[in-house]
């Protein structure tokens, strides 16, 4: 525990001790970065100590995490992370690219990237002996919190917009969380959750508000680092080029901006430890109708101007991104950028991923849509190593998937009817 030494405000730089604050900077509301004692970590561990661990879940990175895993009756549900990476060779070829991989976060316990954040926040909730954990959610953050809470016997309350996809609401209810649907947007649910947590003394998990969500999300970067270390070796032997000249480029969809800033934090931790020579290039992908972070990035400012969020990719429909400043920096500081994609492009990407056996929800497919666009505009070179994150499962939003592919024909159960159809 001593490796977690406090927080630093991402806006004013003020440092706080672990017990001074809980959520954001009291002075300016800035997002807090968790500060780790890198010297202590370095003195106790080498990369090999982590890479040789047998636990495939995110808990293999415990030396770099600011919490301890909950003890006792945690079920396997608690073991988020350890998601697979595989080549998208056929799709890459069509785009004129040679080295494209996908990391499939839909394989997490509740089928989205959000499990990483909730695993760490629930661990923190257990440490501080919180009675109730609450979150606002478009669906996935809530499902992840409800699932993780169920796994350790923690009480959870979820505020979601009433428009949240049915499958996500079903997950919340099945996991036994108290579910409150808001006649309003995700942003309305967010503000209400903060107020309710204050009023009733609940522990609030809200994305881009609770500093521990980014610490969970950074574990994807730690896994990418580990995977890249292995591939790097092979790469060297097979292709014989110096990969230090071609940084890994990562495509990630962005709503509140907490996934991209969490991934950035993970790479920064590794860099600070001297375990990573160069931070990969991060490219954020936003829906055209919900592009507040992208707008700020391209305007060259850290001032986030809210938009009227409109996209069928519900998980990234955010009017006022709560981690916008760090999300702008994630692209800026790594030589990356932001790409906007239309709902049509998202649905096309969803069906293309389907042709190689990946079923993504719209917000997950958005990252691949961003790659398609980037390849078309020369933002990535044909030999660049590229990793695309699929952040959520298509089973979460079946109506959106049906919109992308249309419906199947229905025929009489006769061979004649089959022949006619074919
Ligand atoms: C939450 C979410 C995102 C975006 O993450 P942010 O931290 O809000 O930027 C992307 N895809 C899916 C499936 C999500 O659930
Ligand atoms: Zn501050």
Structural description of this entry:
The structure is a single chain. The protein has 422 residues and is an alpha/beta fold. Among the domains are: 44 residues; 227 residues, Rossmann fold. 41% of the residues lie in helices and 15% in strands. It is built from 15 helices and 13 strands. The strands form three sheets. It has a six-stranded mixed β-sheet, sandwiched between helices. It starts with a strand and ends with a helix. The model has no long low-confidence stretch (mean pLDDT 94). Bound molecules: pyridoxal-5'-phosphate and zinc ion. Pyridoxal-5'-phosphate binds next to helix 9 and helix 13.
SSE arrangement:
Blueprint lengths: L3 E6 L5 E2 L15 E5 L1 H7 L2 H5 L33 E3 L1 H6 L4 E6 L9 H14 L4 E5 L3 H13 L2 E7 L4 H9 L3 E5 L3 H15 L2 E2 L7 H28 L9 E5 L4 H15 L8 E7 L4 H8 L24 H9 L4 E5 L1 H12 L7 H15 L8 E6 L7 H8 L9 H7 L1
Parallel strand pairs: 5-13, 6-7, 6-9, 7-8, 10-11, 10-13, 11-12
Antiparallel strand pairs: 1-2, 1-3, 4-5
Helix pairs in contact: 4-5, 4-8, 5-6, 8-9, 9-11, 10-11, 12-13, 12-14
The structure holds pyridoxal-5'-phosphate (PLP) and zinc ion.
